[in-house]
Amino acid sequence: MWQELRERTAEANRRLAEWKLAPLTWGNVSGISPDRRVIAIKPSGVPYEDLTADRIVLVDTSGSVVEGHLRPSSDTPTHWALYQAFPAAGGVCHTHSRFATVFAQLRRGLPCYGTTHADHFAGEVPVTRPLTPDEVSGDYEAATGRVIVECFRRLDLDPAAVPGVLVAGHGPFVWGHDPLAAVENALALEEIAAMAWAMTACGGPLTPLEDYVLRKHFERKHGPAAYYGQSPGNVESSRA
Question: Which terminus of the chain faces fewer neighbouring Cβ atoms within 10 Å, N or C?
Answer without folding.
Answer: C
